[in-house]
Every structure is written in structure tokens, then in C-alpha cells.
Amino acid sequence: MNRPSYLALSDADWRERIERARSLLSPCRLCPRGCGVDRLGGERGVCRAGATAEVSSSNAHHGEEPPISGHQGSGAIFFTLCNLRCVFCQNYPISHLGHGEPASSGELAAMMRRLEARGCHNINFVTPTPMMPFIVEATALAAARGLTIPLVYNCGGYESLEALAVLDGIVDVYLPDMKYDDNEAARRLSNAPDYVERNRAAVREMQRQVGELVVDEEGIAVRGLIVRHLVLPHGLAGSRGVLEFIAREVSPRTAVSLMSQYFPAHRAFEREEVSRRITAAEYQEAVAALEELGLEEGWTQEK
């Protein structure tokens, strides 16, 4: 039986992780922006997150990749706010406007246990980066109360290595985006002018921590890395470059979820370059690169 790695942590280990995680809040350096605000003192930075977790919803989610959703759903906890400012954000009421409610670490732990009791295959932290210290605290409580299912860190891929180091041995499955192969596109569309370097360093570290995807006898993820890449109009995501990096510098056996579901949302209609859906030809070009590079693990979508 594959046991989640966090179950091996002692009480002393948890105290040390919680202390390290909370130290990243003041001055805040949870993500590569390193905006340095005193979140514990009431300040809010670029992402607008504060001194407590904020949650939009928690429920069984059946729309993730097959090893994540399985047949009983993924226990998704959607956090508000985000450290990226994507003009095309498809969850902007949550990620930009902050639609949600504060939740203590005890309340988060209770959510996790309820999702496990419903039969969910895992706990899926969605947009967790600004809330990471509260997630660590809540996981320690939930583990003490009997939580035994894997943890999925479902993030935008704009992560700091210092924060990821705290999560080593806690997170079982990393599910990051790799959004861009070009920093100028990342600057214009996500206000992240150093996205490529930061994202690639983060994905390398995630791979080091959890390795390639491992599934159980029912095909449910128990450990490993799944990379998501959303194809954008006009080749703005640089799909071939992203896929080449994965194949050559991460692992050709990396599970890749190549997504065709882009649609203009939030402020995308203000930018001509992202104001339409992708074409079938644009998506097939990315699929062809995937196949050419020998990335055989993962999923494509219909277009």
C-alpha cells in the first residue's frame, strides 16, 4: 500500500515545517515576486492575500485529469486569490476578485477530513501558492485527526524554491502549469516577466521531490508530477519550447496534460492576441510536437 509521505512526519517535523512556512509571510516571499509585505501584520501584497486562508469552495471535483479525479472525484479546495495576474484567467472571480470566505487552519483540516469521508481520492489544493503556510498547518491537524489520502498541489507554476522546500515530503502529487516559453508573453499576459526561469526551476524541483507519476492498481495517482500546458492563440504559449524543456530537461516520461480548452475570459477581449479561442490547427501543432518529442505519458483533448 502506498502511504502518503506526510504520514511519516513526526510532531517535531511538523512544528519545524509550520515555523518555516510562517516565516515566509513576513516579509512575504512565498512566490518569486518577493513583494516583502508584512502579511502577519495586516499588509497585503500583489496577490492581495492576508494573514489567514481564504476559500471559495470545497467539493468532489470530477473534471481533473483521470488519475486525479478517478471514479469518486478529487477533493478540491479552491483558494481565493493568485500570485499571477493572467488577463485571460478563467477563474477570475475567485483568483482576482477574491470571492470566498476566511477559513482557519482547523476549518481547513475539517474540510479535508470531510472530503476524505466522501470517498475522494485525494485532497486537491487549487491555487495554493499564496496560502501555503495555512495549508501546512491544516495538513498537520488533518493528519493528526486521521487523514490518509494523497495531497495534490495544483498551482500556476510560478513558485519559489524556498517555499517548495517546505513542501518536500508533504506534497505527494504536483500539478503545475507550464504556461509560457517566452518571458515577454508572460509579462504581457500574466505580469510575470521572469516566469520562464522561475517556472522551470520550480518544475525541476517538483520532479526531484516526487519523481514521475505513479498510480495504484485502479489508475489513481499516489505520487509524482503531472504538468499542464494550455495552448494559447497565435502560439503565444510557445508550446514546442515548453514541451522540449519537459522532454529534455525534466523527463521524457513526464505525464503531460495538453489542454485545448482556452477561451477568452476576464480581460482577454481587451487584447486582440488572446481575444479568440484556439484553432484546431494550433492545437494539432502542439500535439504533433508532443508526439515528435516522445512525450507519451499524459492526455490530449478533443478540439
Layout of SSEs?
Elements: H1 11-23, E1 53-61, H2 66-69, E2 74-79, H3 92-95, E3 101-103, H4 105-117, E4 123-126, H5 132-144, E5 151-155, H6 161-167, E6 173-176, H7 183-190, H8 195-210, E7 214-215, E8 221-230, H9 239-250, E9 255-259, H10 280-292, E10 298-299
Parallel strand pairs: 2-4, 4-5, 5-6, 6-8, 8-9, 9-10
Antiparallel strand pairs: 1-2, 1-3, 7-8
Helix pairs in contact: 1-5, 4-5
Structure in words:
- The chain is an alpha/beta fold and about 300 residues long.
- Helices cover about 35% and strands about 15% of the residues.
- Strands 1, 2, 3, 4, 5, 6, 7, 8, 9 and 10 form a 10-stranded mixed beta sheet that branches.
- The model has no long low-confidence stretch (mean pLDDT about 95).
- The chain starts with 10 loop residues before the first helix and ends with a strand.
- It has helices at about 10-25, 65-70, 90-95, 105-115, 130-145, 160-165, 185-190, 195-210, 240-250, 280-290, and strands at about 55-60, 75-80, 100-105, 125, 150-155, 175, 215, 220-230, 255-260, 300.
- Helix 1 (about 10-25) packs antiparallel against helix 5 and helix 4 packs across helix 5.
- The radius of gyration is 18 Å and the shape is globular.
- The chain is built from 10 helices and 10 strands.
- The chain has a single domain (about 5-300), classed as Alpha-Beta Barrel (TIM Barrel), CATH 3.20.20.70.
